[in-house]
Amino acid sequence: MSAFRSFSGLSSRLLASRSPRSVAGQVFLLQVALVVLLVACAVVAQVLQSQRAGRAEAERRSIAVAQTYAHSPGVLAALRAPEPSKVLQPLTDAGRKAAGVDFIVVMDTDGIRYTHPQPDRIGKRFVGRIEPSLAGRVYTESVHGPLGHEVQATVPINDREGKVAALVSAGLKVETVTSLAERQLPLILGAGAAGLAVATAGTALVGRRLRRQTHNLGPAEMTRMYEHHDAVLHSVREGVVIVGADGRLLLANDEASRLLGLPRDAEGRPVAELPGLTRGIRELLTSGRRASDEVHLSGDRLLAVNQRPTGHHGFCGGTVATLRDSTELRALSGRAEMARERLKLLYDAGLGLGGSLDVTRTAEELAQIAVPRFADFVTVDLLDAVLQGEEPDGAGTGMRRTAVKGIREDHPFYEVGSLIDFVPSTPHARGLGTGRSELVTDLATATGLRLQDAARVERIEEYGVHSLISVPIQARGIMLGVATFWRSRTPEPFDEDELSLAEELVARAALSIDNARRYTHEHTLAVTLQRSLLPRALPEQSALEVAYRYLPAQSGVSGDWFDVIPLPGGRAALVVGDVVGHGLHAAATMGRLRTAVHNFAALDLPPDELLSRLDDLVSRIDQDESGPDHDSGVIGATCLYAIHNPVERRCTMARAGHLAPALVGPDGDVTFADVPTGLPLGLGGMFQSTELELAEGTQLVLYTDGLIEDRARDLDVGMDMLREALARHPDRSPDAHCQALVDELLHGRPKDDVAVLVARTLATPADRVADWNVPSDPAAVAGMRAAVSHKLHEWGLSELSFTMELVLSELITNAIRHGSPPIHVRLLRDRTVTCEVSDGSSTSPHLRYATTTDEGGRGLFLVAQVADRWGTRYTPRGKVIWAEQAVPGQDAPLAHEAGPPKQRRPGRDMDQADTRVR
Fold it and tell me: In what ranges is there compositional bias, type Basic and acidic residues (predicted)?
């Protein structure tokens, strides 16, 4: 308060002195100079504006005159006259004078003048650009012409057909435009002078008021007064705050702003609205009452506040307050503050740990939370079994360095990923063996660490590390690893209270690490199950050139699957499906559906019928698994099934809620197949097949929704991206297409499983197919046997003639006796030799086992005995019975391929069959 009284007395003495060189006089001169400058700028701006307006008016008038003349009647007729200048020159002179322009020039399309104010210029080339006008546009420009600097507009003259027949240009000289602006200059200067007079009078009034308010103080006196003001208010280490009678902050020195946390624009604002003030300080400053050494909390400071009214010092009912930082009281609140920080650390650990269900990430989160709030360096070491999701067996002390975090980018500890075998005397090994934490207050006494690696301990000490806490990580009775906290910046070592805090922090992290370990274990099992259910390799077949990519999701497993299934007759089936959901249930359901598709494909069902049977199967699975003790079932599944016939070069496909496949034609055209969309499996939908004729080399792209859809990308956008990726290089191989789709459409590991199957269609050469129409007459069988034998001889397969003749005889005989016309025979050479006999009947043949006394019933039995495989498939026009025989010198077909296996009966049955054939 004594400092404030000294400042008030000094101010009164300064105000009592006067000086003829007052601040008011200097401010007055400055304001007059500013007003003169502004008026001058205004005059210049007005002149420039007037010139600009005059030029714009000149261009507008030139365009109007030129357009008027261009559309005047008689102009086109004058242009067609033998001497257009004699007709047009008088007209342009009269029009120029009437319109108030300096010239009107008519010219031909080459720019040769017909008219000009100066007759000697007629017949010469026009000065200016005519190309824009020849294009039908009005063009204005500024040129240096015969009359001087000119502003002109050129307009086309169109004939009746709309073509440009001639051009007309009208304009004014620039000096004419300038004279228009200069005529406005006296008015502008008069207005400026009037404004200057008004501004000067206003400035004089303001200066007079300013002189009264500053008491005619000179610059030196004002400077000295403000120097004392700064010395008193801003140099002392005591806060000073002056509040007016209206509750507004009039003044706050630097120390007060720092102690109260005031913003820079605090002065002049109501105290009640200032941010950062506590409730007690705000109420004190606005109350106007006296206060002596009242203690108030402001942020993390305790302030002693004194306040007095200032009415007797010339202020109108305000108050002045002084603030002092009571640093001697901070020691009393130190322990409370430390406890608050520790509680905040544990609270943040509860929020920040365990959100990823990843063991390594959770260990890193523990280290990040502890540095630098609790320790300067943190290392986390976990047993290898924990990182793999397994439960540790307790054998050995070797641990994997999982996380390292410190206040510096470089550190002296073992790198992440290092396998460390701690010696038994180290704090890490003792903690792992006993389950108790270890506190080392002086690193120099840690003999176990020196036995482990003396050179590394020296490097750690060079970094200033002098104390550590080693806490075993254990949860649910399982020892997972060790977390170690190291201190370097603070000279005091860790104490028992900090040991308790470290144990609490690690205990929270241990539960999250164990949860992540369990999740990793279950995820590994699910992925193993899923991969065991997916095809490990694609089967050999000659209908398609196939490549695939399968990418599992980031977390969990899904029910995506794909398949390539060889079918009889050289055909192949392509399958892509997706079971909604994630986890073991989705993977197991996917395996059941994949097995079912293989079984239905073995029956050689068309795509729509196969999906119908698969839909019934999913419905039964849902019914069996839905109930109070089970989950809600499959929830949903989609599937796309396609069959490619390389002989007929046709592909039949149907889909159940799945995305349409993309087709890349040999010409590079990319389309999406127009396949009717059925409901997802299990909803009782109807399915329709679509048959497409595909040129050889067409690529079919089958995929699941994880390839094109995610949270940040809409389905339509993904389809467009897929089309663009395929169209960019349509001649790529199926494998290159697969890799390109994964690289361009996926960024990083996908959120959902992704299955991509690309198949390039192949065509069976015509010389490998033979077919015949067979009359419905038993006598035709002998001829067919001869034709087949001849064809096999051409193919170099004469050793198969006897078997194929026997099979053909039985199949054709059955078709003639039990079927209906038309009867057709086709012989196909692929990886096997296939004989197909089709007829118009849908009667299903059955394999019978005839007794020794039966005279018939051995036809299909003989076929099954001598052929490698045989079967029946149904077509819209009847059925086809087929039989396959392996080509000598080639591998036999795989056992899991479509069709029932060959059945042989030893001994007497085979002898009877051979006797009957002979």
Answer: 906-918
